[in-house]
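Annotated sample (chain length 401).
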Amino acid sequence: MTIRDLARKVAEAAGSEDNLYRLTLWYDSNSLRKPDRIPVFCELYDTWHEVLPETVLTSEDPLFAGIEYELRKSLYKYDLGDDDVVEPWIPVEVVSNLGKDRNVSLWGFTVQRQKTDSLGWIYEGHPIQGEADLEKMELPTLRYDEKATRERCSRVEDLLGDILPIRRTLGPANRQWAKLHSWASALCGMENIYIYMMDNPRFVHGLMQKMMNGILHLMDECEEKNVLELNNFGRLSCGSIPQPDFDGTHVRFRDIWGRGESQEFDGVSPGMYRDFLFQYQLPILRRFGIINYGCCENLTEKLEFVKTIPNLRQFICSAWTDLSTVVDALEDRYAIEWRQSAAKIIGADKIDDLRQSFVEALRIAKGCYLQVMLDSVMTLDGKANRLREWVSFAKELVANN
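Output written by the structure step:
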């Protein structure tokens, strides 16, 4: 099947009533309106080589090969039957220095990331070891190649534009601006940062202050050069953004979703989280129209800080965060994305073994704007049909809620 054939199938899926229904579920939930039912989403993360194991790309050009693979992924997810939404356009990432989600080169350094045997990875070679090294950090500056971006979009337009419109995108960087903890761990080493918070707190404060100021400067540049794009679609569909004064062409941070989390700071106390991370994230998060916060960390004891984010809209309740505590603290003022442990779901002998705990969680969250997500599936462990089993299982239970 050629890339044009795939694009036609994606266009058909994007225009289907089922896709519109999925979109409406997310729109209502994120807008704090009762949806027809709780939306269900399955994040495959690093599992595509298992669900699409024998994919032979017909495109030899790297640009089109990447687009072709994304089209195949969209069709797989549509067929899987969760509430993922098929985008009615071809996203084309701009040519800039912001494309890598964990890009530490913004600060003038290179850090190697090595995979481990446990499906994870570690950083090697940490360039910042003390206060003197802070002077070596560069001020983040946007390098955006408008001409190359136009040429890239034009090539895709020529090939696929008659089937699906082309949409310029900044990629993950469009929301990921408050990951100071991630950069700090890469630049200094995660163990080192934990030690520095006790032995050299002035250094950690200096590092976080410098990164916060650098990101705020970079955000100003992105607005001035108009490289942002609206992101209120799919699972982020929402009626609260863009702002009423949006002019239709110049996207500002207050017109889009932003994201915050604190995974690398999972092991620090609530007070240290507030002092060494959260207070520096907050000025960045306030720039956005609305925010979702959280990822795989346990935020049970840190909710008192997270709920002070003035533009918080969606709270991510990981498998390690206590759902009952979250419901008591947030009630129906925010959407709650309740994430399932992939290890438990993939590892279960039978998917129905999880029924009792799932039903109990739905009871606890009754009346909330709940969203259910199977989070970060790293492997299917040979259970090729487990994803479909879980999607059917979850949709059955939420339909009865």
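Annotation: The longest strand covers residues 335-341.
Annotation: The mean pLDDT is 93.
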